[in-house]
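Hi V.,

You were right to ask for the full record rather than a summary. Here it is.
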Amino acid sequence: MNIKITSIISLTLGILLVASCSVPLLVPTENDASRAQIKWNDENLAALQHGHQLYINKCGKCHYLYRPNKLSDEQWQNKLDKMSLKAKLTIEEKELILRYLITMRDSYVQQEQAKK
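Predicted structure:
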């Protein structure tokens, strides 16, 4: 086998391995949007879903995506403050991602409690 084909096969296998190890993220629901509206009056399902997609596409483009319940509100805020320049996020995109992460953390906590 020539080196070019071997390299392509190795790269493909590497991508598949990384993809199979990634964390499945919960998609926001109407219940999540209702919970978010307690914190942010202007929050809605479409905005949470947009934040979800931005998190996957902007943050996941460069590194592993953490489940929202892995960090506190303050830790997510600090992380996004640090990473938003590297990810070229607008202020609005950063806020959408932050609201998604903070809102969905509760869904992960509830999911983990239901397993017990």
